[in-house]
């Protein structure tokens, strides 16, 4: 565990401009351009995150809870550097392992081995690092000679094995996880769970977005409740879950 790892957000907001379907259509744009009788429409602004302040230090296991659309995945993407804040500041110290959007970077026409390199580069690993772990990744998938074939020949179960093996081959001081990952048949799921447990145990920080209350209780020591992009409660796991579930402590 890195004693240096930390995440600090100060007044972070993320907004997205969204045009209506009518304003986005090519026909509407063409008519406006030709007639010059209508001004360009003002986009509707969607606020995904609104004024977040958050401090996460080494040793923290933080759950993000909230209803669908509350901003959980957006927050993870901000922490991963995928979405820059529209306002505010973010300071992240430590290498991030982002375990969401796992299929990004895969090419169905490329072989399994080629996709190991492609996905590894997408998640920020160095080429030499991927080369050094190529045999280990291949062994973990248990796909054997199938790794020489294009991905379009894979079953969904085989794809999940490859995706998980590559995603978890590179460890990070900060692990960002959108729901706990369960892949493959029962035997492989046990193997995957062991690997995920090991990665989380060695990480300095875990940030987990999940609806699984039992998982949150067994994994996290802190939690935040997001409601419409705002942090409404922050504290111990039980304090936040009490508010989230809307029931008193047993």
Walk me through this protein's architecture:
There is one protein chain. The protein has helices at residues 21-24, 26-35, 72-79, 112-122, 127-141, 156-167, 186-202, 213-219, 237-245; strands spanning 6-18, 44-57, 61-65, 87-93, 96-99, 174-178, 205-209, 222-227, 230-236. With 250 residues, the protein is of the alpha/beta class. The protein has a 6-stranded mixed beta sheet, with helices on both faces. The two termini are 34 Å apart. The model has no long low-confidence stretch (mean pLDDT 87).
Secondary structure elements and pairings:
Blueprint lengths: L5 E13 L2 H4 L1 H10 L8 E14 L3 E5 L6 H8 L7 E7 L2 E4 L12 H11 L4 H15 L14 H12 L6 E5 L7 H17 L2 E5 L3 H7 L2 E6 L2 E7 H9 L5
Parallel strand pairs: 3-7, 3-8, 5-6, 6-7
Antiparallel strand pairs: 1-2, 1-4, 8-9
Helix pairs in contact: 4-5, 4-6, 5-6
Strand content: 25-35%
| Helix fraction bin | 25-40%
Largest sheet: 6 strands, mixed
Head-to-tail CA distance between termini:
34 Å
Task: Please compute the radius of gyration using only Cα atoms.
Answer: 21 Å
CATH homolog superfamily of the domain at 6-95 and 208-245:
P-loop containing nucleotide triphosphate hydrolases
Instruction: Kindly report the spatial arrangement of strands forming the biggest sheet.
Output: 5-6-7-3-8-9
Uncertain stretches of 5 or more adjacent residues: none
Question: Would you list the SSEs in sequence order as H and E?
Answer: EHHEEHEEHHHEHEHEEH
What is the average per-residue confidence, as pLDDT, rounded to a whole number? Answer: 87
Count of DSSP E strands? 9
> How would the global form be characterised?
globular
Text of the CATH class of the domain at 6-95 and 208-245? Alpha Beta
CATH topology of the domain at 6-95 and 208-245: Rossmann fold
- Annotation field: number of helices: 9
**What is the CATH architecture descriptor of the domain at 6-95 and 208-245?**
3-Layer(aba) Sandwich
Secondary-structure-derived class: alpha/beta
């Amino acid at each position: 565990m890195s004693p240096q790892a930390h995440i600090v957000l100060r007044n972070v907001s993320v907004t997205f401009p969204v045009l209506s379907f009518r304003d986005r259509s090519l026909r509407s744009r063409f008519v406006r351009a030709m007639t010059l009788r209508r001004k360009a429409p003002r986009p509707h602004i969607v606020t995904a995150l609104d004024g977040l302040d958050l401090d996460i230090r080494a040793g923290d296991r933080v759950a993000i809870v909230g209803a669908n659309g509350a901003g959980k995945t957006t927050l993870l993407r901000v922490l991963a550097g995928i979405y820059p804040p529209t306002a505010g500041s973010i300071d992240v110290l430590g290498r991030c392992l982002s375990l969401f959007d796992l299929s990004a970077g895969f090419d169905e026409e490329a072989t399994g081995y080629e996709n190991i390199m492609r996905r590894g580069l997408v998640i920020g690993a160095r080429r030499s690092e991927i080369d050094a772990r190529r045999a280990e990744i291949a062994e973990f998938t248990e796909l054997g000679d199938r790794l020489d074939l294009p991905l379009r020949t894979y079953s969904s179960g085989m794809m999940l094995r490859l995706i998980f093996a590559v995603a978890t081959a590179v460890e990070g001081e900060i692990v960002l996880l959108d729901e706990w990952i369960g892949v493959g048949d029962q035997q492989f799921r046990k193997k995957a769970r062991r690997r995920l447990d090991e990665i989380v145990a060695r990480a300095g920080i875990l940030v987990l977005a999940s609806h699984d209350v039992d998982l949150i209780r067994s994994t996290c020591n802190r939690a935040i409740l997001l409601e419409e992009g705002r942090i409404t409660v922050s504290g111990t796991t039980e304090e936040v879950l009490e508010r989230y579930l809307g029931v008193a402590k047993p």
